[in-house]
Amino acid sequence: MTPATGPYTVADVMTTDVVAVTRDTGFKDIAAAMRRWKVTALPVVEGEGRVVGMVSEADLIPKEEFHERGPGMIEQMRRLADTAKAGSVRAGELMTSPAVTVGPEASLPEAARLMAVRHVKRLPVVDGSGTLRGIVSRSDLLKVFLRPDGELAAEIRHTVVERLFPLSHGAVEVTVAHGVATLTGQVRDERLIPVAEQLAHAVEGIVDVRCLLRAPTAA
């Protein structure tokens, strides 16, 4: 899970082995697929894999909720979407459409913000034509925090310290323990110390930064 260049994108962490259903997939088959693959939502596709919606456990629950008794008139008017789904039997009727999707080139913060704003736990990843390429979940976005400490330290040294302090980077020590980076040493330009701290924070997988850099002591 190491990007070729630049920051991590959705393509770096997404799951590419995706289970999907079609509009005609029946209720019981949807429930069975969710149980078998241990997922709580499935993309609904048509044609060559174009995503047209998402069907989740929340879309299936109304059938159980109203199984023993039908909704009253007031409840039916208040919860039109749920009561309609209670009488539905196929994915095309149950799904939420259009699906909230994301492109493979999106950054991880972009995907996280989209999940938060739209109140979803996973996003189908689609290409420019809307074709399903993968799925990214909240747990996928957390994969970057599993990067080894040594890898994180090397990235901070290469992309932050050596670039900001080309003349004094040899005097800077970078260590990472449990995702927390510590920068110590003397640098020539103290104005760049806050920038170094900010850039170190931006490295994917870093939990926190302790910036102890300082300018040379005046003689």
Features:
219 residues, alpha/beta, three-stranded mixed β-sheet, 8 strands, elongated
Give a written overview of the molecule.
The chain is an alpha/beta fold and 219 residues long. 37% of the residues lie in helices and 21% in strands. It is built from 10 helices and 8 strands. It has helices spanning 10-13, 27-37, 57-65, 73-78, 80-86, 91-94, 108-118, 138-141, 149-164, 193-201, and strands spanning 21-22, 41-46, 50-56, 122-126, 132-137, 172-177, 180-186, 208-214. The strands form 3 sheets. A 3-stranded mixed β-sheet has the order 1-2-3. A 3-stranded mixed β-sheet has the order 6-7-8, with helices on one face. Strands 4-5 form a two-stranded antiparallel sheet. Strand 6 and strand 7 (180-186) form a beta hairpin. Helix 3 packs across helix 5 (80-86). The longest helix is centred in the last third of the chain and has 16 residues, at 149-164. The chain starts with 9 loop residues before the first helix and ends in a 5-residue tail after the last strand. The model has no long low-confidence stretch (mean pLDDT 88).
Write the topology of this structure.
Layout: H1 10-13, E1 21-22, H2 27-37, E2 41-46, E3 50-56, H3 57-65, H4 73-78, H5 80-86, H6 91-94, H7 108-118, E4 122-126, E5 132-137, H8 138-141, H9 149-164, E6 172-177, E7 180-186, H10 193-201, E8 208-214
Helix pairs in contact: 3-5
